[in-house]
Amino acid sequence: MSDETSKVMSLEERTAEKGADVSASGEAPEPAGNQVLSKRQRKKLLKHQKWEEERELRKEKRKERKQQRRLDRPSDETGEGGATNSRKRLRRDASTSSLRLVVDCSFDELMMLKDIRKLHRQIQRCYAENRRAPQQVQFYLTSLGGQLQQNMDDHDQGWRNWKDITVKTEHYMEVVGKEELVYLTSDSPNVLEKLDPAKAYVIGGLVDHNHHKGLSFERAQELGIEHAQLPLSSFVKMNSRKVLAVNHVFEIILKYLEKGSWREAFFSVLPPRKGAVVLGEGGQAAQDSDSDASDHQAPDSTTDTTVPPGGNHVEASHASKEEEEEEEETQTLT
């Protein structure tokens, strides 16, 4: 036998002995064949084997932690940790009203692209606020198409997966019965003193900077449907123009459903830059109208007020340049 053959046989014998030693010591055995595992590879193999052996134990521990979290939830919600509850938990606890809010998107051809984009952001805000409201409404988008739908597809494809919303390409007259509709417009002589849960309130989705003032009121009259205006001037005196964005009107109604008070709803939603001032008895401003709006807090909801005749009210379907500045800062919430 040659010296070379002897060396090969000697090497194989040492390898076999090494593998036997590893097995006897409880470490990972060598793989089949002539491949020799390094110390690091053997450690990884042992770690993987241990991981597989403890799989069921980990599963049981996860179940125990989950059950413990369920038991701890009531104390978290009523204690100091209540403010940190997840949105999913808040949605689960929310109730849904039978009241319907409809954003009428039939004004597409009257708006420029920049106004279409602003309306899109306002709709996003309406959706997000409704999803986390304690008293949710049934949210409808009607007459969706044209520039608005294209902008939504281009910049927010996730909108097609939105929940708790009804999106229709048809006009709202084809979706809701005529006798159930109430169009919200500032030109209406009717003041909306309370909400009827059996009604569907329509907000005009028109961002036009007053280029088409009174259009929504004219359309409501032509269609022979009920119309009304929010009681803004009954509770609030504002330094700026009485023009609110679609999402502001939407949020005011959500807040009214939660609080049961128009006054609290207005002062919870109106942005400080509007310079809103509380109106006292007889429709008089409780403070000087030139005062800083940040000094005015929401009044007691039990205070009664009278409705001053001929007051100016919000036009839900219009948005000013001031709304543009605010909406530019609004993040997408889907």
Terminal Cα separation, in Å?
Answer: 80 Å
Helix content: 40-55%
Largest pleated sheet: 6 strands, parallel
Number of helices: 12
> What's the total count of β strands?
8
Secondary structure class reads alpha/beta
Strand content: 5-15%
- The arrangement of helices and strands along the chain is HHHHEHEHEHEEHEHEHHEH
The poorly predicted ranges are 18-26, 76-84, 286-334
Mean pLDDT: 74
**Main sheet strand line-up:** 3-2-1-5-4-6
User: Which geometry do the CA atoms define?
Assistant: elongated
Integer-rounded radius of gyration: 33 Å
How are the elements arranged and paired?
Blueprint: H1 3-24, H2 39-53, H3 55-78, H4 87-93, E1 95-104, H5 113-131, E2 135-142, H6 146-155, E3 165-167, H7 172-175, E4 181-184, E5 200-204, H8 215-223, E6 226-228, H9 232-235, E7 236-237, H10 246-259, H11 262-269, E8 277-278, H12 321-328
Parallel strand pairs: 1-2, 1-5, 2-3, 4-5, 4-6
Antiparallel strand pairs: 7-8
Quick tags:
single chain, 334 residues, alpha/beta, 6-stranded parallel β-sheet, 11% strand, elongated
Describe what is shown at a glance:
The protein is an alpha/beta fold.
Describe the fold and architecture.
There is one protein chain. The protein has 334 residues and is α/β, with parallel strands linked by helices. 43% of the residues lie in helices and 11% in strands. It has helices at residues 3-24, 39-53, 55-78, 87-93, 113-131, 146-155, 172-175, 215-223, 232-235, 246-259, 262-269, 321-328, and strands at 95-104, 135-142, 165-167, 181-184, 200-204, 226-228, 236-237, 277-278. Strands 3-2-1-5-4-6 form a 6-stranded parallel β-sheet, with helices on both faces. A two-stranded antiparallel ribbon has the order 7-8. Helix 10 crosses helix 11 (262-269). The longest helix has 24 residues, at 55-78. It starts with a helix and ends in a 6-residue tail after the last helix. Residues 18-26, 76-84 and 286-334 have low confidence and may be disordered.
